[in-house]
Amino acid sequence: MTARQPRDTRLTCETCGYSTPTTTAAMAERCLRGHSCDLQRERDRRRAAVAARKAADGPRRDCGHPVAHHEHGTRNAYVLDRCRCRACRDANSARQRQVDKLKAYGQFDPFVDAEPVRRHVRELMAAGMGWQRAARLAKVSSGAMTKLLYGKTNDDGIRRPPTRRVRRETAERILAVRADLELLGAKAVVDATGARRRLRALVAHGWSMRQLALRLGMTESNFGRVIRSDDAMHAATVRKVCALYDELWDVPPRADDHRSRISVNRSKRYAAEHGWLPALAWDDDTIDDPGAWADLGGDVEDESPDVDQVAIDRFIAGDIDWQALTTTERLTAALQMDALGYSRNSIAALVHVNSRRLYATFAAGRPVTHTEAEEMSTASSTTQVDGVGAHPEPVDVHADSAREEAA
Questions:
Q1: pLDDT tens digits for 66-97?
Q2: Which fold has domain 189-281?
């Protein structure tokens, strides 16, 4: 049996530079004798030409479109602007390699239904974000966004319908855009529930409306309209309010002299008279929700079931506010106000008790604990008290009081 020959021989032609594969000595000599120097020179020349073309920069053409601004290094610039710079050519080559790979695996499906994308853009527009801003955030041309929403008019004047299909990459970029407050334009009109709650919480904390107006760069008259009305606000104003709230919600106002103490007490009293809640009554994830209810501590059991009837009488008469009573006393006051003919919606707004526990108290005819309220709610989850659900709609307390006085 012949011994295995080592494969460690590599020979090179001195004329053309051809090198044989690393193999046995006999096979290397055979490859060297069989090669063609002319053919090797032609191969080297072609390789050098290809490398030179790859290394060289072609004609560079900047985007000349009036609205779109195609950047170099993208396939759009290569196709639409006919730019042949190195970066655009590399981007086109990378895209073509990706397409070839997907085709080889049978996964090339570049288009998706445009309707979900169009619906998402319209939702962004309803939330206060213009379609042009959405296009910039998604890095989509304004022309593509226009055709998606409204269609296109041909040169012959015929109006084409909106796009039925869009590229998958375009759809993913557009769907990734969210109507977050930070992304909206400065003049976008947004819901101001959260901003108003934040301002009122700062007033309840002792900050005067004058101080807050100065920090926001507003006049006192404009600030008063903002904090009292239910109107929407510009996104820029809401962002300022949120930043101010994050700065001051746990910072007590200055009260080191007589005048500042008067200002703090006056602000707190004004907030209490108008039912404005402190910062701790709201969670960060619910303060912006118009349908959320504040956590007023109604779920915490009182240490003693004893009640102060004098304090309850003063509360009903309007001499003190709800913060001076325990939860049990507030529930007792609610029962007595119900017997006096107050509407239950106005009672709910005045006593500041968890609505589930309050209406369980009405049903039982006595103050109930949080545990009892939970058990009653579980036993009759669909039951309503006097036609009012477990979450009454907010009402104008002052209007209810005026009607009761008139009656």
A1: 767 788 888 888 988 889 888 898 899 998 99
A2: 434 Repressor (Amino-terminal Domain) (1.10.260)
